[in-house]
């Protein structure tokens, strides 16, 4: 409860700060049509339903699954993707793991096999080193590359080290929910709006039809892992629809509707992966019927649809299989239905908002009053210069912010702990997935997590970190398969090529595709993970998980680097610069990431105080890598042999055109190849930190290279360029990239804000959604406003003129400093630093030594001026410091403080605080005491006044956090403690115990609110109701004792066989401890069968004469046979009689009768509580 309370309070604080203390976002006048003004900057909205998923549909998600909301009126579609529905991996799952080797094809079991790999490796290395005939060692005329097909002598030799695509495949498209409204004429619909609120992650459709206003809400809940849809109208009885759940798998899945639930279930043909989804329909009023695989609802007041889905995928080697998803999906959808729509929505909004609200940003914008697609079109008109209507300055700023925050929104919606990381399309797509929708490790998955840490969403990187932990194990054999290095214990590293999947595909790509050869994939992947440590300071993660992985990869490169006599340095060989040019030795791309990995691993080892001997070896290799070399055009070379752009030369050979230079996937325009989309040789600038402003020669060369590549490219390439230009400090060029991305159309942001790679000429012909462009853009804006890669914070390093007035609250710098900034006309007003971990804080900004640093109490803080622009000071963990340009004392207005103080005192006096949770009471007392003190302090600073007023405001806003009425829960707990679980079967006992423990926790929590108390009461009452008394076995036990001593040798074999079978069955029933009163008939039947078999025993000494039966023998005559049957029945009746007698006794020691009575009392009191709650709500 306290954790949840803190989250709610955090959200309230963030919202209050946005509204009250930050520069206000202007809201334009109502639109010309007279509708209500849009008052939410971070709401994207449209006045038509979507018709295309990747350009128009609205994305919702919870990390596990994603939804695309179309918002049709007569027929609505919500398309679904479940992240683990993925082809490939071991064919047949758990039963057949031997057929999958993570893409590796070279056998590595024997020394002879490993030597063959080393021989093949040395062959290609020696040829690349030989410059006697060819500049790149191989005949450049034999080399060609088109898409994923590479040909030539060098490729032939490289193929011997590469894997294949066995077990490699794409995610499968999943399903769609259809909601078909009955008898709707769409031509008569008016006031249609479809929107998505990024602050709450709620999508909404609303419209008017025949005098009724209809609303639908959609959200993907992470706390409950369900998708929820709510249909309402402003008049009762107006909700009429049918719904179905349709598979889009490429196989026949079962689709059944029963009761209130539609179940979709099936398995993938390639690997047997089982997937199941359940859609539960909950109408309020009206009638619900089943029609085939659909559910119809008529005349309802409202309806809620809840979908849960899952697979038996488990991120665990070697089978990648867990439990059948049926039980978990059933439990999840039922629990969500029991919880109810309001509680589901409340928890969803609280969970999402607690993350999203951490960062606010403003650029003197105005909230747009036109649909988002129209706003984007105006921005595109401006970028294209086509003469169309263009946005105002304030509208431009608004859209730039919206696109920035959408990257944060997608991070939360697509990457949550427990789920897989985001892939090329995140968790959204329909019909198919371009480039396999996989995890590309030559920039794309890394870019997905570039913005996460600085934009205050560190938790959202955990799925990526967890993925690497498993991939590390799968990638160990690739070290041997590609390089012949022994690696049985994994100490010599792990590799991942260009691409991977949830089945940890890790080989060096596929034969015939040079782009797949990506031996620095693991080093680059670990750079993101190391950044997680730098931002959070999580020492446990560094020591226990990250450093062992980093160390092993450093050991690999310590072994795998090759000394090149021609280059006089250690090189990665063979090497390839994605996705451009020839196969070489020592491509700058590899050299830079190897250098950076050694740098980070050495720093980590020194932090942990370990591996001093290895540090020396790593440093010796690092110092001889030359990761950045400047060419004759003043550029950063992409290849060692490069001279000027597009040219290369070696030894005494003539200069040549670089093979396959600039060749881009389908991007030619009129036969002219544009500059290549990849900037692989500038990784030293970003995301690495080899090139910086502190090295002007390298920085100048980087800018020459950037200028050659131009501003245009694919969506994700523009995002990379934005980060690169941001690192240069050149704000004009960086902002041109911002505009090119936001207004880029098919090679930028689409109308639903998805970023597009783009296809066709110059990538502008048609859209291809690729999510890394969204994340890269957000990361680039972060870099323009705050950098910390050089060991100190740079405030506003690349601030463009267009953003010369603005603010940021909640951005994060390395070493876990949270930063607020406000600036006017290009000059900083103040910076606020919250030190989450403590330690020294160093920052740079023009003239910063003239600024004043104070703590939260307004006390001056001692600083060290390192230069005119750089200062340093010590911080305490959890403390906040303000760096302000105000250098002289000024009169501080306390009017606002006085208002909030008086208001708080009035609430206290009126008793408004009495029913609040304890945390709110404490907050009120502290805030009022602090307010009195600041009001009395003549020397109180502006910051003290603001902070105290804000604290009082928080207290007032928290008044709705009322303490729960716990009387019903107390009674339920008292009843539960009377139950003796020994009288009940085991099924349901654990749920009962858990519910009782949770209920006691709520009772003990002084901050419990009513929703929690009600939820705990419901859970405990349901758990008690679900307990089943053990069945009565007295009659069976008595009969078993009765027959225990029978001498069966006296009877015929036939009758003994019948008796023995009945006896064994009876013993089995008696031994079954899980039989409840619901199963009493099974026990009675066992008694009847055993007694009948006993009475049917035939003595050996007698041979019955059917004509003259002996009336004294069992079964002696027809009448007695009937009597025996009657006796058998009497036995059954006696058993029933015994049962009744036993039941009467059991009633005194815990049977259901007294529980039922008390349950009715509890339920009645619960109903009363609900009524009271509703009255309070009114």
Structure description:
- The chain crosses the membrane at residues 1153-1172.
- Residues 787-883 form the Alpha fucosidase A-like C-terminal domain.
- Residues 1120-1148 have a biased composition (Low complexity).
- Residues 1-28 form the signal peptide.
- Residues 44-315 form the Glycosyl hydrolase family 95 N-terminal domain.
- It is globular, with a radius of gyration of 36 Å.
- The protein has 29 helices and 39 strands.
- A hairpin with a 2-residue loop joins strand 6 and strand 7 (149-151).
- Helix 12 (539-560) crosses helix 13, helix 19 (895-909) runs parallel beside helix 21 (942-957) and helix 23 (989-1004) runs antiparallel to helix 24 (1010-1026).
- The strands form ten sheets. It has a nine-stranded antiparallel sheet with strand order 2-9-10-11-12-19-16-15-14.
- With 1178 residues, the chain is an alpha+beta fold.
- It has six domains: 44-85 and 174-358, Beta-galactosidase, Chain A, domain 5 (Distorted Sandwich), CATH 2.70.98.50; 97-169 and 435-627, Glycosyltransferase (Alpha/alpha barrel), CATH 1.50.10; 801-884, Immunoglobulin-like (Sandwich), CATH 2.60.40; 895-959; 967-1029 and 1152-1177, Substrate Binding Domain Of Dnak, Chain:A, Domain 2; 1034-1149, Substrate Binding Domain Of Dnak, Chain:A, Domain 2 (Up-down Bundle).
């Amino acid at each position: 409860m306290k954790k949840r309370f803190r989250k709610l309070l955090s959200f309230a604080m963030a919202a209050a700060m946005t509204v009250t203390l930050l520069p206000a976002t202007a809201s334009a006048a109502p639109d010309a049509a007279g509708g209500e003004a849009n008052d939410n900057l971070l709401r994207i909205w449209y006045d038509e339903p979507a018709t295309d998923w990747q350009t128009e549909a609205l994305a919702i998600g919870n990390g596990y699954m994603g939804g695309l909301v179309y918002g049709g009126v007569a027929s609505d579609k919500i398309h679904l993707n479940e992240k683990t529905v993925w082809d490939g991996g071991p064919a047949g799952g758990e039963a057949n793991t031997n057929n999958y080797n993570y893409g590796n094809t070279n056998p590595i079991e024997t020394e002879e096999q490993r030597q063959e790999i080393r021989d093949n490796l040395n062959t290609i290395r020696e040829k690349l080193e030989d410059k006697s005939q060819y500049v790149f060692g191989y005949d450049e005329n034999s080399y060609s590359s088109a898409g994923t097909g590479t040909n030539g002598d060098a490729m032939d030799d490289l193929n011997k080290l590469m894997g294949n695509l066995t077990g490699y495949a794409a995610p499968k498209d999943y399903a769609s929910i259809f909601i078909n409204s009955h008898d709707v004429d769409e031509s008569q619909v008016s006031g249609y709006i479809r929107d998505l609120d990024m602050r709450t992650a709620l999508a909404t459709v609303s419209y008017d039809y025949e005098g009724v206003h209809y609303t639908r809400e959609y959200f993907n809940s992470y706390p409950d892992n369900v998708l929820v849809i709510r249909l309402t109208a402003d008049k009762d009885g107006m909700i009429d629809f049918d719904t179905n759940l349709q598979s889009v798998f490429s196989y026949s899945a079962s689709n059944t509707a029963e009761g209130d639930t539609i179940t979709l279930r099936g398995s993938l043909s390639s690997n047997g992966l089982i997937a199941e989804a359940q859609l539960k329909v909950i109408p309020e009023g009206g009638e619900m019927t089943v029609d085939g695989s659909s559910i119809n609802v008529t005349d309802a007041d409202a309806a809620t649809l809840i979908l849960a889905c899952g697979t038996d995928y488990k991120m665990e080697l070697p089978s990648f299989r867990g439990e059948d998803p049926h039980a978990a999906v059933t439990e999840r959808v039922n629990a969500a239905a029991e919880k109810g729509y309001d509680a589901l929505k409340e928890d969803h909004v609280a969970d999402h908002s607690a993350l999203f609200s951490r960062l606010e940003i403003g650029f003197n914008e105005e909230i747009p009053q036109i649909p988002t697609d129209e706003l984007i079109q105006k921005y595109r008109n401006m970028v294209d210069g086509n003469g169309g209507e263009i946005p105002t300055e304030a509208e431009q700023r608004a859209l730039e912010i919206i696109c920035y925050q959408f990257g944060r929104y997608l991070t939360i919606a697509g990457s949550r702990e427990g789920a897989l990381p985001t892939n090329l399309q995140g968790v959204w797509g329909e019909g198919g997935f371009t480039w396999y929708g996989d995890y590309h490790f030559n920039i794309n998955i890394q870019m997905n997590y570039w913005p996460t840490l600085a934009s205050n969403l560190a938790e959202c990187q955990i799925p990526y970190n967890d993925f690497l932990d498993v991939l590390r194990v799968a990638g160990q054999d690739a070290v041997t398969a590609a390089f012949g290095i022994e690696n049985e214990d994994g100490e010599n590293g792990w590799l991942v090529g260009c691409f991977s999947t949830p089945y940890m595909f890790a080989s060096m790509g596929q034969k015939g595709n040079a782009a797949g050869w990506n031996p620095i994939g693991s080093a680059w992947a670990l750079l993101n993970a190391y950044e997680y440590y730098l931002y959070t300071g999580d020492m446990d993660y560094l020591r226990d998980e990250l450093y062992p992985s980093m160390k092993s990869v450093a050991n690999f490169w310590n072994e795998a680097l090759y000394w090149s006599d021609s280059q006089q340095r250690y090189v990665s060989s063979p090497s390839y610069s994605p996705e451009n040019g020839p196969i070489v030795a020592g491509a700058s791309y590899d050299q830079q990431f190897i250098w950076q990995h050694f740098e980070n691993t050495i720093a980590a080892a020194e932090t942990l105080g370990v591996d001093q001997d290895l540090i020396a070896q790593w440093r010796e290799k690092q110092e001889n890598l030359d990761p950045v070399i400047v060419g004759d055009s003043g550029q950063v070379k992409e290849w060692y042999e490069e001279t000027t752009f597009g040219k290369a030369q070696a030894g005494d050979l003539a200069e040549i055109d670089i093979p396959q230079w600039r060749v881009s996937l389908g991007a030619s325009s009129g036969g002219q190849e544009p500059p290549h989309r990849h900037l692989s040789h500038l990784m030293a600038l970003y995301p690495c930190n080899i090139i910086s402003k502190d090295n002007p020669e390298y920085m100048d060369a980087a800018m020459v290279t950037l200028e050659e590549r131009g501003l245009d490219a694919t969506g994700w390439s523009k995002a990379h360029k934005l980060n690169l230009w941001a690192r240069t400090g050149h704000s004009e060029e960086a902002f041109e990239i911002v505009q090119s991305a936001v207004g880029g159309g098919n090679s930028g942001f689409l109308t639903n804000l998805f970023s597009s790679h783009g296809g066709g000429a110059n990538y502008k012909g048609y859209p291809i959604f690729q999510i890394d462009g969204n994340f890269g853009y957000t990361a680039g804006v972060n870099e323009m406003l705050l950098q910390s890669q050089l060991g100190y914070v740079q405030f506003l390093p690349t601030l463009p003129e267009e953003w010369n007035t603005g603010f940021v609250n909640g951005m994060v710098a390395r070493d876990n400093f949270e930063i607020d900034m406000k600036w006017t006309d290009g000059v900083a007003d103040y910076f606020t630093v919250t030190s989450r971990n403590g330690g020294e804080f160093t920052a740079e900004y023009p003239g910063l030594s003239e600024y004043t640093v104070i703590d939260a109490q307004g006390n001056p803080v001692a600083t060290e001026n390192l230069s005119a622009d750089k200062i340093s000071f010590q911080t305490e963990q959890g403390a906040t410091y303000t760096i302000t340009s105000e250098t002289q004392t000024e009169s501080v207005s306390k009017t606002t403080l006085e208002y909030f103080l008086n208001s708080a005192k009035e609430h206290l006096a009126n008793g408004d605080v009495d029913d609040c949770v304890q945390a709110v009471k404490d907050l009120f007392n502290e805030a009022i005491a602090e307010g009195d003190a600041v009001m009395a302090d003549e020397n109180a600073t502006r910051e003290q006044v603001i902070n105290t007023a804000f604290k009082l405001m928080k207290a007032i806003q928290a008044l709705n956090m009322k303490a729960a009425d716990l009387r019903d829960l107390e009674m339920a707990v008292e009843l539960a403690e009377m139950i003796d679980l020994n009288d009940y079967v085991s099924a349901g006992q654990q749920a009962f115990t858990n519910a009782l423990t949770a209920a006691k926790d709520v009772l003990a929590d002084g901050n419990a609110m009513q929703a929690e108390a009600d939820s705990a009461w419901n859970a405990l009452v349901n758990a008690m109701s679900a307990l089943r008394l053990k069945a009565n076995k007295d009659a069976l036990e008595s009969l078993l004792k009765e027959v225990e001593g029978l001498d069966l040798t006296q009877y015929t074999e036939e009758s003994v066989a019948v008796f023995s079978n009945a006896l064994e069955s009876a013993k089995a029933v008696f031994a079954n401890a899980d039989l409840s009163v619901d199963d009493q008939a099974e026990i009675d039947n066992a008694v009847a069968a055993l007694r009948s078999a006993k009475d049917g025993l035939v003595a050996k000494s007698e041979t019955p004469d059917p004509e003259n039966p002996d009336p004294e023998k069992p079964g002696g005559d027809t009448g007695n046979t009937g009597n025996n049957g009657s006796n058998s029945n009497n036995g059954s009746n006696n058993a029933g009689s015994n049962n009744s007698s036993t039941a009467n006794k059991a009633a005194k020691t815990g049977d259901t009768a007294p529980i039922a009575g008390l349950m009715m009392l509890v339920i009645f009191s619960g109903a009363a509580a609900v009524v009271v709650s509703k009255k309070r709500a009114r």
